[in-house]
Write a structure and sequence with these properties.
Elements lengths: L2 H22 L6 H7 L9 H8 L3 H13 L3 E6 L2 E9 L1 H4 L2 H19 L1 H18 L4
Protein name: MarR family transcriptional regulator
Keywords: DNA-binding, Transcription, Transcription regulation
Organism: Lentzea miocenica
Length: about 140
């Protein structure tokens, strides 16, 4: 199996588990919405930035942001650096899902460590962080 698929399968598993945990806690969000929601920067993001980060068209990002705004997870506010532009920001409602997702991630990491061992888990994390140095355009 090629390395791309070996990386994709656990990533998909993580996304599915985290989304299930958040949905089970009462948050109504789809996987597509979550992918956009997770990419909103701490100070907010422009729609074009979200589309690029989520690797979707600007129209798709706008549609998903509209849905998330109607559900109370995102808000649009004026961009302080450009009065003509708008920023998309997460709301308190969206931030309430973060601890749930983080707890689920911690459970997964513990399960994986039990399965492959502490040393290999540490090596996996270190290797992925090193790969991030050359593969993550948003770093």
């Amino acid at each position: 199996m090629n390395i791309g698929l070996l990386l994709f399968i656990p990533n998909r598993y993580v996304e599915n588990r985290m989304l299930a945990a958040v949905v089970n806690a009462g948050f109504e969000v789809t996987q597509a919405q979550a992918r956009v929601l997770m990419r909103v920067g701490p100070q907010g993001s422009r729609l074009t930035e979200l589309a690029e980060a989520a690797q979707v068209t600007k129209q798709t990002a706008g549609f998903l942001v509209d849905q998330l705004e109607q559900a109370g997870y995102l808000e649009r506010v004026p961009d302080p650096s450009d009065g003509r532009a708008r920023l998309v920001r997460v709301t308190r409602k969206a931030m309430a899902a973060v601890p749930i997702a983080n707890e689920e991630m911690a459970r997964m990491e513990e399960e994986w460590e039990q399965h492959i061992g502490k040393r290999r888990m540490t090596q996996l994390r270190e290797a992925l962080e090193m790969l991030g140095e050359i593969t993550d355009p948003y770093r």
